[in-house]
Batch of 3 targets.
Target 1
Amino acid sequence: MKKVCIINGPNLNLLGKREKEIYGDKSFEEIFNQLQEFAQSKSMDLSYFQSNHEGEIINKIHECMGDMDYIVINPGAFTHYSYSIFDAILAVKVPTIEVHISNIFSREEWRKKSVISPACIGIISGLGLDVYRLALLHISQK
C-alpha cells in the first residue's frame, strides 16, 4: 500500500470561504473525505497536513522521509519564494507532485514562477480541486 501525504500551505485552510470564483465552495475537509475514498480504492494510505507557517511545512516534509512514498504539495504563496521548501523536498528524496487549484500561469505576473517546481516530479495546475485526485491517480499508476 502506497503512503501519500497531502501538504497544503498558507490560506488553504480557508477553502470554501475565500475567493469562491477561483477556489470553489467546498472546504478541504470535504474534499479530503472524497480523496480518502478514492485513495482506498487505489490501495493508498492518505494523510493530510495544512499550515500557514513555512517552518511547520518544512518539518512535515522532513517527517515524510522514510515514512511516505509520495508527497502531494500545494505550497500556496510559498510557491513563489520558498527556497527552504524546495531544499526540504530535495533533501528527503520523497517523490513530490506540486498542485495548484488555479492556473498560476494565467494570474498575476508574480504567481507565474514556482521555485518549488524544479524539486518536484511534476506539476498539476488550474483544474480546480481535481488537481489532488489527478495527482493521486498518477501515483496509483506507478
Target 2
Amino acid sequence: MRARPATTADAAVIARIYNDGIDDRVATFETGHRSADDVERWFDGRHPIVVVEYAAREARGRGAGRMAMNALMDAARAAGFWKLVSRVFPENAASLGLLRSVGFREVGRYERHAQLDGVWRDVIIVERLLGAG
C-alpha cells in the first residue's frame, strides 16, 4: 500500500469506497450514492484529497486508514491548514480509535445532530491541531 495525492482519475474508485460507507450507515448521514462526477467536484484545488492504493472494503484492518490519515494531515499542513475537524458516530469505535491513534482528541458531542433513516443520531466532535496556527 502507498498513500498519494488523489486525482480526478481516482473519482470512480473513491465514489465506490465512499458508497460502501453510505451503505454501512456508520460513517455519514448521506443516504444517496455518489457518482464519479460528484466526487470530481470535490477537487477544488484548495482542500487536499488523498488515496491509499488498494484500500477497498476487503483491505480493512491492514493500516490503510492510518496511512490515509497521516497523508491527509501532511497534505493539509502543506496546504496551510492548522486544524482538521470531524464528527463521528459514537458507535463507530474503529474510526474513533483510528483518529485517537493519530492524535485527534474528542472535544464534545452533538446530541441529536441529525436523523439517519428516521432515527436521531449523536456525533462525537474530534479535532487534530496540525501545528502553529
Target 3
Amino acid sequence: MEEQQYYVLSAIDSTEKDTNFFFATEDVEKDVLNVSNKLNEAWLSDVYSDKEAALIYIEKEKIDALAYSTTEKARYVDNSRAHRKRLGLKYKDEVLQRATGAGVEEDYVLSMEEDHAKETHLALPFWSKEDDGITNDLNEASTQEAPFSITSIYVKKKTIESLATLFPDGSMVLLNCTSNLEALGLEYQDGILSQVEVEDTRKETPLKEEEKAPEEAPKVSWLKIGLSAFSLAMDLKNAYELSKAKPKSRTTNINILATNIHLVNKEKGFWDEKRNVGEMLMLVTSELGEAMEAHRKGKSADWIGYQEAMEGTAPMSPQEAFEHCIKDSFEDEIADAVIRLLDMAAGLNINLEKHIEAKLAYNRTRERFHGKAY
C-alpha cells in the first residue's frame, strides 16, 4: 500500500489577499522553514502533524487536484474561496486555519446536476455516504464540513433537518415543494436546481446635503390616529376569526400526503413490480363507481359512532370501529379514489403541488364554466 504524503501549507504566509497558497519548503533558515507559492518547490511530508498552528498538513492528492501550471511549468494552487472550501479551510482574524473540528456546523450536500435535481422530482437529491451516489433519504446522506464540488449546494444540517419529513419507515425526506425551496433560498432555473441570488435592497444611496428635503414639524391628526387604531383592531379581529375557522392539516402540502401514501403501499407490496398506468386509472374509476353506489344507498360515514366505538365502556379496536362505522361509505370510497390517485402520482414521480398550482392559475384566466354549457 502506497504511503500517504502531505503538502504543508503555511497558515501565516498564505494571507487572504494572496493569489496562491504558500507551502513550506525543505529549506531551513534559523530553524524556520522557508515557504514558496510554487508547488514544485513544496516539501512533501510522510508524517501528518498539525501540532504547529502555523502549518496545515493536507493530503497530496487533494492539492494536486487543484494545481495549475504556467508556461514556465511552475505549478500553483489558487487561494480562492472555492478552493478553501474544498480543502476545508477558512480565514479567521485574517489567519488561515482549518474549517473542520469541534463546533463547526456540517452541511448536507444537494446535487445540482441535471439528472438529479429536477423540478418534477418529489424529493430533493443529496449526495450519499457512498461515493458519487445520490439518495433522497437523509439517513443515508453524507455531511461535509466544507464544499468540494461546484455542482452542489451546501445547506446547514440543522436547517435541512428542521424542514425534513419523517415517514413511518424511518426515512427522512426533504420534499421538493415550494415552501421548502423558499426556506432554503432555492429555485429552479431551466429545470435545474439553483440558489436564489438575493439583491440587498437595504443599502440606499444617501441624498447629497443640498438634495435633502427640508424637515417639517410633524402634524398630528387625532382623527387619523383614531381611524388607524380602529382599522388595526378590525384587522386583528378578522385575523383571529380566520385563524379559528381555518382547518388544521396534518400535512403541509399534497406532495407530503402522496409520498406518505406511496410509502405505505410500497410496504404492503403494491409496488413490488412495475405498475400499469391504465390499470391504476381504472382502479381509481372503480372506486368512484363504488362511491356512486354508496351515495345511491344513502350510506354515509358515522363519525360519532366511530369515536364512541373506540372510547365507550367496551371499546373496539380502530380496525373494528372503522369496519363498523366508516367502511364502504360514500366518504370512504371517495377517500379510496384520492388515495389511489396520490399513490399513482408519487409512484410516477409527479409533483402534484406544482401541477395543481399551475392548473389553478390557468383556470383563473378562463371564462365562466370554462366556455362550456356546464
